[in-house]
Specification:
This protein has five helices and no strands. It has helices spanning 2-10, 14-37, 44-65, 72-97, 100-113.
Length: 121
């Protein structure tokens, strides 16, 4: 399915490619969430596989976002979907099992928004 996102974009249907990639992001987060809701601890190896899949989908999504035909509102939605998905998965893993590559991005996101968030949050 991932290859289809690029094919759809190359056909000139950037918005459809974006929606398809967003759906894939949602599915990846849902799969990790369903495992964590079962009370199972997601082991590091499984988490790395899921995160690798997520990275590949984000690349396809970013390519769709780069198309000039994508409206601003859809660009923002797609970008924020990636950020929230990454933060959701990082939270599900917890600090101890979170790979350092993911922690780096979490720290950068927090640094970028911490001045705008109340200290109680």
């Amino acid at each position: 399915r991932l290859a289809s996102v690029g094919a759809i974009r190359r056909r000139g249907e950037a918005e459809l490619a974006l929606v398809t990639a967003e759906g894939m992001v949602k599915e990846i987060v849902s799969s990790m969430k369903s495992e964590s809701e079962k009370g199972k601890r997601i082991d590091r190896a499984a988490a790395l596989v899921v995160l690798c899949s997520f990275a590949h989908v984000v690349i396809a999504l970013a390519a769709a976002l780069s198309e000039p035909s994508i409206p601003d509102a859809k660009f923002c939605r797609g970008a924020f979907r990636c950020v929230t998905a990454l933060l959701d998965m990082a939270a599900m893993l917890g600090e101890k099992r979170r790979p350092k590559e993911v922690q780096f991005h979490v720290d950068m996101i927090i640094a970028g928004v911490e001045d705008f968030i109340s200290k109680e949050a």
